[in-house]
Design goal:
The complex is a heterodimer of chains A (507) and B (543).
Chain A lengths: L4 E3 L1 H4 L13 E2 L6 H5 L11 E7 L5 H4 E3 L3 H7 L11 E2 L6 E3 L4 H8 L3 E8 L7 H10 L11 H9 L17 E4 L15 E4 L2 H8 L13 H30 L11 H14 L6 E6 L18 H23 L5 E7 L19 E6 L7 E2 L9 E3 L9 E3 L3 E2 H12 L4 H7 L13 E3 L4 E2 L17 E4 L4 E4 L3 E3 L1 E4 L2 E4 L5 E3 L2
Parallel strand pairs in A: 1-2, 1-22, 3-10, 3-11, 7-13, 7-16, 8-9, 8-10, 17-19, 18-20, 19-22, 20-23, 21-24
Antiparallel strand pairs in A: 4-6, 5-6, 7-12, 11-12, 14-15
Helix pairs in contact in A: 5-11, 8-9, 9-10, 10-11
Chain B lengths: L12 H11 L5 H7 L4 H10 L30 H20 L8 H9 L12 H14 L4 H9 L2 H6 L13 H10 L14 H10 L3 E4 L10 E4 L9 E2 L8 E2 L7 H15 L1 H15 L6 H16 L7 H9 L2 H4 L11 H11 L11 H17 L28 H15 L4 E3 L2 E2 L4 H8 L14 H8 L10 H12 L6 H12 L4 H19 L8
Antiparallel strand pairs in B: 1-2, 3-4, 5-6
Helix pairs in contact in B: 1-2, 4-6, 6-7, 9-10, 12-13, 12-14, 16-17, 18-23, 20-21, 21-23, 22-23
The chains are: A alpha/beta (507), B mainly alpha (543).
């Protein structure tokens, strides 16, 4: 598939001429498996792959984490009292329109090494500004008006490991299917009846405390809710006892090979995760959590906006993620692990008078891993079209960072392309189908009819880069009104090229 | 018959235990016996009558302070270097009240725990102990008072102004933090029972404007001997505030007098309380706390709605005590389906066990070192089980009280491990409080006290294995164990497979030689094994 442009027969008729093809032949091409084709030698089997979820609680201020540079003046106007000075921003290789908070050197290094993706404007339609409700929406993986008790990850895991926890552990899966570092079970892992995850804070201590003896027998279940609760506790006891030895074994067999930052609450948790992965625990999903992001007041230092409370939080985050990824690489497990961060909402674009920020809508997520094929989804927030005004027209109106990428599209890619789940099952797990973001694909594809330059036309939420292979999906018409460059094009739908326009195929 | 009708029959032991488990962190067996036979109304008279609001101020439990073991003097100059330990002293003061068995059981601590987790202010954020003590006292003194007055007081409470940024809310730069939580968490609730939103985003903005102009002065001010809350008209938004149809399109006129703060807040609270969902939201939360976290549509219609009507009626006018009495004395409260319907929080698990086994906290004025050791250990243990007292992660309170998993949220495999660890310290105490007193249950002495004429081995028969097991189970679990399980406890756990009569020989040998290590260990280990087994049962996790 080198140096060629693919156009389906049916689509040829719609191409406006003349087409300058830079000497490359135009061939017809059936609907192939572009996913399989796009995966460079799929690493290991799907069953070995792991997702690590990093939850930043309180609502992270995305606009001070990933800062617009091209429109710095507009950014400054929104939040003079907390704005990061432009000369302190960390710039990324090949990126001119935004920079990272100066505390995020870890993320910068990961990005420059091709190991991190910035998902701009991640959120969901009709955002809710309540901490509890919005984190439920992210964790249960629903639309804003749908109330669901089970977590999105639990629904996937109970689909993949049918019947869990009944009949587990078993020879096919002797380890916990999900594991959370921390005491409080996350709704993300809440299954039909109870959490599908084992919660630990320290693998050896856990084993010591739980021991191997079977739980006691209290006899017949009492009636009503009490019976339900006793069943729940008994199941937790069985899970804990059933898995404590496996977890200890993995912790004993595994080791941390990279250096982690001292006194880093997130690093301490990821360290345990890395050690268990290295020790061979077959757990598929991990969940860790870090708090403190609800920065209503004094989020930056009085004398220097680049340091202070939020800076410390971001440093903890960036340093921890970097060490974790280094560790996985040194262990040789980095091809099996993808990590993603999320917060229940972003903070408001305009700061408040307390040198803080109130609850907002969207914010970037970071995704990290060797398997990534895309390093930006969406674009840096545009200070005009991407800001939602609470009171349109009023200069003093509150302004919110609008949505570019629905978080459920990232979940979709995690399940389909990373975990190898059947796309139609993923649609039921997430209650509706979502288009890919191409996060794990070499290609970039249309998700709706539209012009080349419109972000929403594309799976990635941004137009193709010169090195990217483009697919125009059936039913979509891609209009191209100016010269464009791409590695190649597979036209399964229609392409409408304006007269005199050059399509430069570099593939 | 209505579910809210008064239950009037004399209480059985199980019903007395149910009432005491829900209204305290956990009763002693003697308290259950004392409440047996009372009518619910008599029992509630006692539980409420025993509320003691006039209690000693906190004792300074800062080990390094010159005033260690003396009453904490809030009029002393504030010193940043001593602030943390004094804050600890304030938290310890409250914790000690909950675990105290020297006073008759009262509702006050359990309902204060409820309100502190409703109008949350945390010591993670508000670290001026004077602010926090005043806040806790406000919670306690209003806990059974008038809800309307309670909301007003908490809105302009110094600690709350600091916690939810009311202090930073001014006409030129409004801060919405308090205005949001006031509606979402403190009064109307974000949504009604059917999931419809109760207000709009703009209502938050408007409420924030009503609340502009208040601040506290003196927070953590070095060497200050007092602090205050004040209203500044110059920082107040004097324009009209217009609310949505959710609040009947109420508009609150801007006021430009020095009393504008009070006038507009009163109007705001009247508006919030006039919202039909406010009374339901509070009654539902009380029901979840005291009766059952699972509110079915039938309960909503037959309990929450009428209780809310009563709460907000002209006759009751937002008095809290009559509502709590009605709920706790109702048919539905005593219905068997609500027995054991909640998983114990760390307060019920830890403080409840210490009350049941009568593991007292020393009086700080007499044994400050012991009191400090006791309370700091309890604090750590509670923290390890997810309930760091006054240190909630957010204004939502402790997670299991608001997350969908409800009380199940207390129990993950991680907290289970820590609950097991705690149980181990109950049955085999290791931490020395003072002298020979170790933090945990003195199980052997309990058993010894059940033996009549302990030293008279010849004349008074030994208490039997059946008797000992029965006594250790007395009012301990919500539901009586079946005869077969109880037999298995005696034979398999307590006697570990040897004949029951062997216990009589072992016990008499202990009576004859009570200082002989082998004699002591023979009976002690059986007792420890029995209690460890029972406390680790899933049945012990519910209340």
């Amino acid at each position: 598939m080198n140096r060629r442009i693919f156009v389906r027969n049916s689509a040829l008729a719609s191409l406006s001429l003349p087409l300058k093809l830079q000497g490359h032949p135009l061939v017809a091409h059936g609907m192939g498996s572009d996913l399989v084709a796009s995966m460079d030698a799929a690493p290991g089997s799907f069953g070995d792959r792991i997702v690590v979820i990093v939850n930043l609680t309180g609502g992270n201020d995305g606009l001070n984490m990933v800062v617009p540079v091209a429109e710095y003046g507009e950014y400054l106007n929104l939040r003079q009292n907390i704005a990061i000075p432009q000369n302190k921003l960390l710039m990324l290789d090949g990126v001119a329109d935004f920079g990272l908070h100066p505390a995020l050197s870890g993320i910068r290094d990961l990005y420059n090494d091709g190991l991190a993706c910035v998902v701009h404007g991640a959120g969901y339609p009709n955002p809710n500004q309540s901490h509890a409700r919005s984190s439920d929406i992210w964790m249960t993986g629903t639309a804003a008006d749908v109330y669901e008790n089970t977590g999105w990850a639990a629904r996937y895991l109970q689909h993949e490991y049918a019947g869990f926890p009944v009949g587990y552990p078993n020879p096919q899966m002797e380890d916990p299917i999900a594991l959370q570092i921390g005491f409080s079970p996350t709704p993300t892992f809440h299954g039909d009846e109870q959490s599908v995850a084992v919660n630990i804070t320290d693998a050896n201590q856990f084993y010591q405390l739980i021991g191997e003896g079977a739980p006691g027998n209290g006899g017949e279940l009492p009636c009503c809710d009490a019976g339900d609760l006793v069943t729940y506790v008994r199941n937790q006891q069985l899970l804990a006892v059933g898995y404590s030895a496996e977890i200890k074994q993995a912790a004993d067999a595994g080791a941390n090979l990279a250096l982690y930052p001292a006194s880093n609450k997130l690093g301490d948790q990821l360290k345990i995760v890395a050690r268990l992965i290295h020790g061979g625990l077959k757990t598929r999903m991990y969940f860790v959590q870090m708090g403190g992001f609800d920065t209503h007041a004094t989020q930056a230092d009085v004398n220097d906006n680049s340091i202070g409370v939020h800076a410390n939080l971001l440093k903890t985050l960036g340093d921890a993620l970097k060490s974790f990824q280094d560790d996985l690489k040194m262990q040789g497990t980095d091809h099996r692990v993808v990590t993603m961060t999320f917060s229940e909402f972003g903070r408001r674009a305009n700061s408040n008078g307390s040198r803080g920020t109130d609850h907002g809508h969207c914010a970037p997520m970071f995704v990290m891993g060797k398997a990534l094929k895309k390093f930006q989804l969406g674009t840096i927030n545009r200070m005009t079209e991407d800001l939602v005004w609470q009171t349109p027209g009023s200069p003093t109106s509150n302004k919110f960072v609008g949505m570019q990428i629905d978080f459920r599209r990232v979940y979709t890619d995690m399940l389909n392309d990373w975990m190898g789940n059947d796309p139609s099952d993923t649609s039921s797990i997430l209650f509706q189908p979502f288009s890919t973001t191409s996060l794990f694909r070499n290609t970039i594809e249309t998700v709706q009819t539209g012009p080349w330059t419109t972000r929403a036309t594309w799976s990635t939420g941004r137009p193709p880069l010169p090195a990217e292979q483009v697919i125009v999906r059936p039913g979509h018409t891609l209009s191209i009104a100016q010269n464009v460059t791409m590695a190649g094009m597979d036209v399964q739908g229609n392409v409408d090229v304006a007269p005199g326009v050059n399509l430069n195929i570099t593939g | 018959m209505s579910l809210l009708d008064a239950y009037v029959s004399p209480l059985t032991a199980e019903q007395a235990a149910h009432l005491l488990r829900r209204t305290t962190v956990g009763p002693t067996a003697a308290e259950v016996d004392a409440f047996m036979g009372l009518t619910p109304q008599q029992a509630l008279d006692l539980l409420i009558g025993n509320n003691n609001l006039v209690i000693d101020p906190p004792v300074n439990l800062d080990k390094d302070a010159p005033a260690f073991g003396q009453l904490l003097n809030v009029a002393e100059p504030f010193l940043g270097t001593e602030a943390f330990d004094r804050l600890q002293s304030v938290r310890f003061w409250w914790m000690k009240r909950m675990v105290d068995t020297s006073q008759p059981p009262s509702l006050l601590e359990k309902i204060s725990l409820f309100w502190q987790n409703h109008f949350v202010v945390t010591t993670l954020r508000v670290t001026d102990y004077r602010f926090y003590l005043e806040y806790l006292q406000l919670i306690r003194s209003n806990a059974l008072g008038n809800f309307s007055a309670f909301v007003k007081a908490i809105t302009i409470n110094a600690a709350m102004l600091e916690y939810l940024d009311g202090d930073a809310n001014t006409n030129t730069s409004p801060n919405e933090n308090y205005a949001r939580e006031l509606q979402e968490l403190f009064t109307v609730g974000e949504r009604d029972y059917d999931g419809n939103p109760n207000y709009t985003e703009n209502d938050i903005k408007e409420a924030a404007r009503v609340l502009t102009g208040w601040r506290h002065v003196g927070y953590r001010a070095e060497n200050s001997t007092s602090y205050l809350v004040e209203f500044r008209i110059s920082k107040h938004d004097i324009t009209t505030k217009q609310f949505s149809g959710s609040y009947n399109s109420t508009s609150i006129a801007g006021n430009n007098t020095t009393n504008a703060g009070n006038i507009e807040i009163d109007a705001l609270i009247n508006m919030l309380l006039a919202h039909p969902q406010t009374a339901r939201f509070i009654c539902r939360k009380l029901y979840k706390w005291f009766v059952n976290p699972n509110v079915t549509p039938a309960i909503e219609q037959q309990v929450i709605v009428p209780l809310a009507q009563f709460f907000s009626s002209a006759q009751n006018n937002w008095a809290i005590e009559p509502v709590v009495r009605k709920l706790l004395g109702s048919q539905i409260f005593f219905d068997i389906s609500n027995r054991g319907a909640i998983i114990k929080s760390p307060a019920e698990m830890i403080l409840g066990a210490y009350r049941y086994y009568q593991v007292p906290c020393p009086d700080g004025l007499i044994d400050a070192t012991g009191a400090q050791k006791y309370l700091v250990t309890v604090q750590t243990t509670m923290r390890n089980q997810l309930m760091a007292l006054t240190e909630q992660d957010s204004v939502f309170g402790y997670e299991p009280y608001y997350q969908a998993s409800q009380s199940k949220g207390w129990l993950s495999s991680a907290t289970l491990a820590n609950r097991y660890a705690f149980i181990e310290t109950v049955v085999k105490p290791t931490v020395t409080v003072s002298g020979t007193y170790k933090l945990g249950a003195d199980l052997l002495t309990r058993a010894k006290n059940w033996q009549p004429n302990f030293s008279d081995t010849a004349g008074t028969p030994a208490i039997t294995a059946e008797f000992v097991v029965t006594k250790f189970l007395e009012h301990l679990l919500v539901f009586e164990l079946s005869a077969s399980i109880k037999n298995s406890l005696i034979d398999d756990v307590f006697m570990a497979g040897i004949p029951r009569d062997s216990w009589l020989f072992e016990w008499n040998r202990y009576r004859q030689t009570p200082t002989n290590t082998d004699a002591v260990n023979a009976v002690k280990n059986r007792i420890i094994n029995l209690n460890r087994y029972v406390l680790r049962l899933a049945e012990y996790e519910i209340f």
